[in-house]
Design a protein that fits this description.
The protein is built from three helices and six strands. It has a six-stranded antiparallel sheet with strand order 1-2-3-4-6-5. About 30% of the residues are buried.
Length: about 110
């Protein structure tokens, strides 16, 4: 696991309201009020960020070769983004925020990005 990438992903996730980190399946998962919204993992030996994009958006993301359908939870609307250099950290931040907003209570949600 690439520790430098994890540190950056962790900083983005834990900066969000009422977020904590857990390792229920051996990888760091980030939750808001016990609901998971993103994970740092490896996919075929490549570090990856897993986020919830919604079933309705799966096909859109999977058209981009950088993304893959997450094992076990992909059918529920989760994708992974391979974190290969150069990583677009603005894109990673937007994905983390969007996934957070999908599971966070309404009072905690971030303003929509334009």
């Amino acid at each position: 696991m690439d520790e430098a990438l994890l540190v950056r992903v962790r900083a983005l996730a834990v900066a969000l309201a009422e977020t904590d980190e857990t390792m229920p399946f051996g990888d760091p998962w980030f939750r808001v009020r016990a609901k998971m919204f993103c994970c740092f993992t490896s996919h075929e030996e490549t570090p990856a960020l897993v986020v919830k994009v919604g079933k309705e958006n799966l096909d859109l993301f999977l058209r981009d070769a950088r993304f893959f359908k997450s094992p076990y939870i992909g059918n529920a609307g989760w994708v992974g983004l391979r974190l290969v250099e150069p990583v677009d950290w603005e894109e990673v931040r937007a994905l983390v925020h969007s996934s957070y907003n999908r599971v966070a209570p309404k009072a905690l949600r971030l303003p929509e990005e334009s």
